[in-house]
Amino acid sequence: MTATKLAVAGAGGRMGRTLIRLISESQGAAVLGAAIEGTGSPFLQQDAGTLAGVGALGIKVSGMEGLGADIDGLLDFTTPAASVAFAEAAAAYGFVHVIGSTGFEDAHNSAIVRSAMRATIIKSGNMSLGVNLLAVLVQQAAAALDEAFDIEIIDMHHRAKVDAPSGTALLLGEAAAAGRGIDLAGHCLRGRDGQTGARPAGDIGFAALRGGTVVGEHTVIFAGASERIELTHKAEDRAIFAHGALKAALWGRGKPPGLYSMVDVLGLGPKR
């Protein structure tokens, strides 16, 4: 198979530049086909390789007009609204869309589900292979331990992160809820303050910490009577998310339309 031709959305951001560097180091598995930025970006028309520090690649940063049928996949760590627009482009042109953006609301998710009827979309609250393996373990633990074990999820990120709980925390919460056979939306505890009363049995609690330059730390606690189980993942470099996204794009090439997750990429999801 020829090298997978990839576009990078948000090419001027930290993750975008990391993705461009990783593609340039992929030893022929992938090549950069387009670098995308929003209207008014100061990075428009700059060489994407120079911007990422890997030398000129002959690919100028452009708007969405850089996407087309010659692109095999798009790596997208942007915003929910932008991801919805990119999903529509994926449905129109037939490329694989890897979504690492977070902070989605129900309307965004519904729009992406519609696009996935015609496009191969891989979406995850965290593209790290380790985090997604953790999610599988959390689901298994939640299924094995009954409501005598309370579930609490703690996430910590750098001070500039704009959404809470993090997409990863919600990913882990969904895994725990799936293990318990419940709907997370109906059993979600956030933001305790004041006289809250006793903790309701069966709910899944979240706590978000923000400060410093922390890349990402997540712990899922199963707290029972006189014993506690803690499952933790600590991200030390944002490159782990880029590696996962690239793996997802390569995996998704040739897959039929549908909404996939990183658990599918790892081969741990249900057979389709």
TrEMBL record:
Pathway participation: Amino-acid biosynthesis; L-lysine biosynthesis via DAP pathway; (S)-tetrahydrodipicolinate from L-aspartate: step 4/4
PROSITE patterns for this protein: DAPB
One Gene Ontology cellular component: cytosol
Enzyme Commission code: 1.17.1.8
Dihydrodipicolinate reductase N-terminal domain location: 5-127
Top EC group: oxidoreductase
Subunit description: Homotetramer.
Binding of (S)-2,3,4,5-tetrahydrodipicolinate, residues: H158, G167, T168
Main location class: cytoplasm
Name of the protein in question: 4-hydroxy-tetrahydrodipicolinate reductase
Gene name of the encoded protein: dapB
UniProt keyword list: Amino-acid biosynthesis, Cytoplasm, Diaminopimelate biosynthesis, Lysine biosynthesis, NAD, NADP, Oxidoreductase
HAMAP family linked: DapB (MF_00102)
One Pfam entry name: DapB_C
Dihydrodipicolinate reductase C-terminal domain ranges (all copies): 130-266
Molecular-function GO terms, alphabetical: 4-hydroxy-tetrahydrodipicolinate reductase; NAD binding; NADP binding; oxidoreductase activity, acting on CH or CH2 groups, NAD or NADP as acceptor
Subcellular location: Cytoplasm
Protein function: Catalyzes the conversion of 4-hydroxy-tetrahydrodipicolinate (HTPA) to tetrahydrodipicolinate.
Catalytic reaction list: (S)-2,3,4,5-tetrahydrodipicolinate + NAD(+) + H2O = (2S,4S)-4-hydroxy-2,3,4,5-tetrahydrodipicolinate + NADH + H(+); (S)-2,3,4,5-tetrahydrodipicolinate + NADP(+) + H2O = (2S,4S)-4-hydroxy-2,3,4,5-tetrahydrodipicolinate + NADPH + H(+)
Family, similarity comment: Belongs to the DapB family.
Binding site for NAD(+): G10, A11, G12, G13, R14, M15, E37, G100, S101, T102, S124, G125, N126, M127
Active site: residue positions: H157 (proton donor/acceptor), K161 (proton donor)
GO annotation terms (biological process): diaminopimelate biosynthetic process; lysine biosynthetic process via diaminopimelate
